[in-house]
Structures are given as C-alpha cells and as structure tokens.
Amino acid sequence: MHPFFATLAAMSLSGAPESTPASTTPSPPIEVQQVAPSLYDYTRDVLFGQNWKQADLSPRDRSLVTLSSLVAGGRTAQLTSHLKLGLDNGLKPSEIVGLITHLAFYSGWPNAMSAVGVVKEVFAERGIDLATLNPGNAALLPIDAAAEAKRAATVAANVAPLAPELARYTDEVLFADLWRRPDLSPRDRSLVTVAALITQGQAEQLPFHLNRAMDNGLTQAQVGEVITHLAFYAGWPRAMSAVPVAQSVFATRAATP
Taking 50 as the threshold, does the pLDDT of residue 21 lie above it? Predict the structure, then answer.
C-alpha cells in the first residue's frame, strides 16, 4: 500500500466518538418550504419521492453517487445530511473515506480536503471509531494485465512526451495503487469516478471511464440512472451532455465482438 494514502485517509479524522442517532429519511429542510415552497414540493415529491426510489440504482448506490457529486462540486454545505443518509443506506465509513481519497485525484485536493472536516464531525456524531479507518498494509486488488498494458501504452504515447511526470504519477500512483485499494470495490470506484466526471462536465474523459465502469459490472440501465440522478445534483446541462457520450459507448460495445 502506498504510504501516501494511509496519510490522507487518517488526516484530520480524530476525536472522541459520541452516541449513534436514529436513522434519517430524505426530506427537504422546513426553511425551504418557508422561503421557496415550489422548490420544497419538487424536492419532496420529485427528488426524494420519485428519483431516489427508482429501482435501477439501490439507495446505497445513490448515496455513493450523490456524495461523489457533492465532493467533486465542492458543495460541502450539503455533505452533512448526505453523509448521514449514506451511512443509513449501508455505506461503510471506510468506503466514504475511500471515496474522498479517490476524488482528491479526480476533483482536486482542495475539494477532498474540504470534505475531511465534515466527515470527521459526522463520524464523531455517529460514534465511529476513527482508528479503524486506516487501511494499513491491506493487500492491493489484482489487475487485468492486458487492459492495464493497453492503458499504459496510451499514456506513454499521448501524455509522456509532454508531461513525463504526469504519466509516471498516472501509472505508478493512480492506476497501480489508488485504483487497486480494497476500501472500494472496482465497480464502486468506477461509479465514484463517473459521477465526478459528469458533475464537473468532463465529457471527454467519460468514454474511457464508462467502458471501465461497465467492465467492472455497471449495467446500461444503471448508467442511465446515474446520469438521471445527477441531473438533480449536478444540473440538467451536465446530465444532458453525458447522454450522447453514454449512447456512443453503448453502441461501440454492442458492435464489438
């Protein structure tokens, strides 16, 4: 395990645990009803009443996607309620820390670092023992040697001539270490990445990561639900821009023997 990740996972996550509160149910704050009643109605009836209940993504997966979008978008003000909901929906504390660590690379260090303090507060409120979150020397997950060789060749040809250190970090840290950490499954890591890319409007990076996500077990229906869910959390333009990219990926995969 690369020592960098143990450091980031443990950074700022210390403090005395408290008792665990009762589970929460998604609902808009009452002040929304007071200030913007139509927004309250849409939030209650459409966002939580319909979107969160669609069957193609589990509540756990929706929490994973939502947290990824909030961290990637730097929206820490919304993190507290969704961290609590994610824990209620079955996300493990180690998976939440893994999500933040992963998104340091895919949405930038400032967004990840800003999320750490919020996570610390929620974990303390829930009585989560922070000492259990350090992955230590856990064995890295195996890789697909053929797929990794193809990816590395692309980086060597297109990135290394201009930015050799970026190519090295990409090979040695991003894919040889981060993507192999066991705190997130490959499917979940892909789900986090795709959600972050859509949130940030990084459509040019989507084909590679949508293919990787589907290789890791995400179905077409689930990809469609991820995009739909993110319309609410990243905005309709971001979701609409992702649709033709996903359609192109699906068509290419269907045409490939």
Answer: no
How many C-alpha atoms does 36 have within 13 Å on its Cβ side?
8
Mean pLDDT of the chain: 90
Euclidean distance between CA atoms 1 and 98, whole angstroms: 13
Mean of the pLDDT values across residues 120-137? 88
Closest CA to 230 of 197, 189, 208, 184: 197
- CA-only gyration radius of the chain, Å: 19
pTM of the model: 0.89
Question: What gap in Å lies between CA 37 and CA 5, rounded to an integer?
Answer: 44
User: What is the distance between the alpha carbons of residues 107 and 226, in angstroms, rounded to a whole number?
Assistant: 18
Report which DSSP code applies to 57. S
d(CA 214, CA 210) in angstroms, rounded, equals: 6
pLDDT of residue 176: 96
Tokens of residue 45, six digits: 């009836």
Closest CA to 100 of 74, 139, 125, 126: 74
Per-residue tokens: 12: 């700022």
Instruction: Compute the Cα dihedral for 131, 137, 142, 147 and give only its sign.
Output: positive
